[in-house]
Amino acid sequence: MLDYLFSEETKMIQDLARKVSIEKVLPMRAELDETGEFPRELMREFAQADLCGLYIPEEYGGFGQNVLNFCVATEEISRVCGGVGVTFAASALGAAPILLFGSDEQKKKYLPEIAAGKKLAAFGLTEANAGSDAGGIETTAKKEGDHYIINGTKQWITNGGEAEVYTLIAMTDKKKGSRGASAFIIEKDTPGFTFGKKENKMGIRCSATRELVFQDCKIPKSQLLGKEGMGFIVAMKTLDMTRPGIGAQAVGIAQGALDEAVKYARERVQFGKPIISFQAVQHILADMATPIEAARALVYSTARMVDAGHKNYTMSSSMSKLFASDTAMKVTTDAVQVLGGYGYMKEYPVEKMMRDAKITQIYEGTNQIQRNQIGLQLIKDSAAKKK
């Protein structure tokens, strides 16, 4: 790993996240993947280690708003288990709209308990007909006096059913299209708010993925985030801020697969020699290690842009998620190849890492959508230069 000139604080967080992951997550990894059990106890371990508030300002009970520290911790957790890593990271996704657009009162109400790990958060954007097309949202929020009535369904929500706090995008004025969307905070036990079954997934199996179902769910107008009509902006700004976290998850999964491939190649003997001594294997490992480091550098650079208050990091955010997740998919596939028949067996963790890696190319905007975002930004930049 290259030297990224981390502060002593960041090094401490990295070492702590690695220690907790190896001591607490690793012994449970295979069982959690097999059973699909939600890692609630592991979330408590992260809370006890003060890792849950890395992205939340100190005034709201956090460690200090720092996306780089959060990405470093997410990477270390995902290096051991992608499912546990996304459970940890998805709470930040759910809290981000409050952090970015919440009133001081809303932040004081929700962020301290999330920072302390007492509550998990989740973000409700995707629907059956509104995934990549966020403008196709059909869930509605009708204002009636001092309340809003929510009706609709959100699909494939990470931490769904387990989180206590949900940030939601719903339509307050369908006639205005994406400009008619608004953002809300909804608590788990609100009447009219229920959950679908836990999805049976290919990878990240311990992570909870459920439908959010709203049937005449009544919430006070104080639960509106920002102003009416800002929902699409809330969603896009949130994803810009959190996509480096998915990049970090992907880097962690890829690094874990490389670690296993190198370890196996040193131990596996063929033709009287460890297979790592063969140039063909060395080249595979080199082609795994190099893009991992490039992806890591891109993720860290984007995180530092966010922390520095850079005005526009949409393209960098999309690039970091795109490149890191594509890298994770290729690296984990190559790791299975290095291990050969053993790599295909559940006795070794690389087949799980390969299954976990795939989702990083899909959620928080598919990689095709990321390419769209990058292309649009290039067009804007080019037009600006001509003026």
Structural summary, described in words:
By secondary structure, the chain is α+β, with helices and mostly antiparallel strands. It folds into 3 domains: 8-120, Butyryl-Coa Dehydrogenase, subunit A, domain 1 (Orthogonal Bundle); 122-231, Butyryl-CoA Dehydrogenase, subunit A, domain 2, CATH 2.40.110; 232-386, Butyryl-CoA Dehydrogenase, subunit A, domain 3 (Up-down Bundle), CATH 1.20.140.10. It is 52% helix and 14% strand. The chain has helices at residues 8-25, 29-35, 40-48, 67-80, 82-101, 104-115, 231-267, 279-307, 314-339, 350-359, 367-386; strands spanning 121-124, 140-144, 147-158, 165-171, 181-187, 193-195, 209-220, 224-225, 269-270, 273-274. The strands form 3 sheets. Strands 1-4-5-8 form a 4-stranded mixed sheet. The protein has a 4-stranded antiparallel sheet with strand order 2-3-7-6, covered by helices on one side. A two-stranded antiparallel ribbon has the order 9-10. Helix 1 (8-25) packs parallel to helix 4 (67-80), helix 7 (231-267) packs parallel to helix 9 and helix 9 (314-339) packs antiparallel against helix 11 (367-386).
